[in-house]
Protein: Pyridoxal phosphate homeostasis protein
Organism: Psychrosphaera saromensis
Amino acid sequence: MSKNSDINNIATQLLNAQNNIENVAQKYNRSASAVTLMAVSKTKPVEDVVAAYNAGQRIFGENYAQELFDKHQKLSHLADIQWHYIGPIQSNKTKIICQSASWIDSVDRLKVANRIDTHAKELNKNINLLLQVNISNSPHKSGISLEQVNELAESINLLEHVTLRGLMAIPDNYDADEMGNRPKLNQEFNQMLACYSDLQQQYPSVDTLSLGMSGDLDIAIECGSTMVRLGTAIFGKRN
Ligand SMILES: *Cc1c(COP(=O)(O)O)cnc(C)c1O
């Protein structure tokens, strides 16, 4: 359960996040409307999601299939809420993910994309997909390499009940140098931007580059992110 003070906080923090996005976009000569804010509500109660919704937020991200499913069910009366699944995908969970989400942002193999396509057909819906790139080559993160993007995109583009919308990445946590810079992070985000621009040339449906979380929002917007995913900055620390 959430206290009233938490709910007021969420509205304030959401507003702060929107202002922050606006300021950073302006700093890098980008339009703030080109950067969409996703509120990542994983581990937080539905009351917190409702608080953000009532403050105007519509796009939410969840990492755990069952948690997404439960929240989607409880909030099914909020017709214009948009759920993104952003967590690792187990094949046996694809069905409940497809029942709950209109976007799946963490696709990393064709087998999973095929299952999503089959479920989407059964559910008579179209599901938007992002390919997750393991941009830091981290052994602990899922995602394909940049070199694998074209092949997976080509196969997914042939599927009928999904739409390829772009790319997503979760980089490693890099410490800042003495100057406060994180050159490795800049480099990796720029690699993502180049790959995304290339994909856009090939597929007109591609319009989303999901980069940036609470700790690296600035660099992500500088490097062309069109969707930032904020959890902590909106809902506070997770337990
Ligand atoms: C948890 C999570 C976020 C939000 O992270 P914060 O640092 O809390 O903003 C964003 N993207 C993904 C994929 C996540 O799992």
Summary: The first helix runs from residue 4 to 27. The CA atoms of residues 40 and 231 lie 4 Å apart. The chain has a mean pLDDT of 96.
